[in-house]
């Protein structure tokens, strides 16, 4: 079986190397990886996943923030690191001969574009704005959130910072970045680079089909992004699941395996949706599940999470 992967982001590139024993090819519309958002990753999970393709994540870690500061509340960081995603992809791309071929199976790894799979009914794509800037600040992850979106600033090592936001419109994203700057003192100055992108705000269950004819999706194209913005590990995990289904000749089980594996994303989506719709009781009922999920990455008492829910009313 000849396999054509379309999209050489985190999911597509990882899948390509997992499938090294197959007749596999990959292509991308970009000439080089870009520096858009999603440089944070759950360290222990990502390290183990990348180990499967012979890559040492430690070589790309640029910061290990002590805290996540969200709307002024300091939450102890346990397992989130910032890695140089662009450099990691550049190194992997350097080992690839990109080709576009006629294949038996096409993999849609095109992220929010979902270029090959059927369109999603009532899709939710939020615009994001991001820049790389120079600042002198304590190396934490800074977040300013409201019901419809959030802004962030995270350290890239040295004095470089990634500053950005995602919300329902670009104007609202700009507002959030201004709020973040005011809250944490990230003054607007010289930008090293900047770009626009989009992020899908739907869980896997609302992004079906994952398989359509001879096309199968991975990563963000099938909703493998958490309600709190975590996309790298879910992208890698979805690629791993697809690889195992192909090895076992069980592609028909791919959808059910994805849904089972990413039940935690479904729970986070329920929580975020309840907060956005101001359904306080539903949000509180979902809180224990979300808190249990987030213990993978942070250490935070329930009272702090409740304070964040209150702040998200803005």
Please, could you describe this protein's structure?
- By secondary structure, this protein is α+β, with helices and mostly antiparallel strands.
- The chain folds into 3 domains: 1-33 and 85-122 and 202-261, 3-Layer(bba) Sandwich (FAD/NAD(P)-binding domain); 40-83 and 125-200, D-Amino Acid Oxidase, Chain A, domain 2 (2-Layer Sandwich); 263-314, no CATH class.
- 33% of the residues lie in helices and 25% in strands.
- It has 9 helices and 16 strands.
- The chain has helices at 10-18, 43-51, 85-93, 170-184, 232-247, 254-261, 263-276, 280-294, 302-311; strands spanning 2-6, 23-27, 40-42, 61-63, 67-70, 73-77, 80-83, 105-108, 125-134, 141-146, 149-155, 160-166, 191-200, 211-212, 215-217, 298-299.
- Strands 13-9-12-11-10-5-6-16 form an 8-stranded mixed sheet, sandwiched between helices.
- Strand 10 (141-146) and strand 11 form a beta hairpin.
Count of discrete alpha- or pi-helical segments spanning 4 or more residues: 9
Range of strand content: 25-35%
Write the H/E string, N to C. EHEEHEEEEHEEEEEHEEEHHHHEH
**Total number of distinct structural domains:** 3
Structural class: alpha+beta
Cα-based radius of gyration, to the nearest Å: 19 Å
The major sheet is characterized as: 8 strands, mixed
Mean pLDDT: 89
Instruction: Give the CATH class of the largest domain.
Output: Alpha Beta
User: Would you count the extended β strands for me?
Assistant: 16
- Report the span from N to C terminus: 52 Å
Shape: globular
The residue ranges in which pLDDT falls below 50 over 5 or more consecutive positions are: none
What is the percent of helical residues?
A: 25-40%
Biggest sheet, spatial arrangement of strands: 13-9-12-11-10-5-6-16
CATH architecture of the largest domain: 3-Layer(bba) Sandwich
CATH fold category name of the largest domain:
FAD/NAD(P)-binding domain
């Amino acid at each position: 079986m000849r396999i054509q992967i379309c999209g050489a982001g985190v999911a597509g590139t990882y899948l390509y190397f997992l499938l090294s024993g197959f007749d596999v090819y990959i292509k991308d519309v970009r000439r080089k990886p870009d520096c858009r958002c999603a440089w944070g990753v759950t360290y222990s999970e990502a390290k183990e996943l990348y180990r499967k393709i012979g890559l040492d994540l430690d070589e790309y870690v640029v910061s290990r923030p002590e805290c996540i500061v969200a709307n002024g509340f300091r939450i102890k960081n346990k397992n989130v690191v910032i890695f140089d995603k662009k450099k990691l992809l550049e190194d992997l791309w350097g080992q690839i001969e990109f080709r576009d071929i006629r294949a038996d199976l096409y993999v849609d790894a095109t992220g929010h574009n979902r270029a090959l799979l059927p369109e999603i009914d009532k899709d939710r794509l939020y615009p994001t704005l991001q820049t790389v800037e120079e600042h002198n600040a304590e190396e934490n992850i800074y977040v300013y959130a409201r019901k419809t979106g959030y802004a962030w600033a995270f350290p890239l090592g040295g004095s470089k910072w990634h500053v950005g936001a995602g919300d329902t419109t670009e104007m609202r994203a700009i507002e959030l970045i201004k709020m973040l700057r005011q809250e944490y003192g990230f003054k607007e100055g010289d930008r090293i680079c900047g770009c626009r992108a989009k992020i899908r705000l739907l869980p896997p269950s609302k992004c079906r089909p994952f398989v359509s004819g001879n096309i199968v999706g991975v990563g963000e194209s099938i909703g493998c992004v958490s309600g709190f913005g975590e996309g790298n590990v879910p992208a890698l995990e979805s690629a791993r699941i697809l690889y195992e289904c192909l090895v076992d000749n069980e592609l028909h089980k791919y959808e059910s395996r994805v849904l089972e594996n990413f039940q935690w994303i479904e729970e986070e989506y329920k929580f975020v949706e309840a907060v956005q719709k101001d359904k306080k009781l539903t949000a509180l009922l979902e809180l224990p599940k979300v808190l249990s999920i987030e213990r993978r990455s942070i250490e935070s008492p329930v009272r702090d999470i409740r304070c964040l829910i209150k702040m998200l009313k803005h």
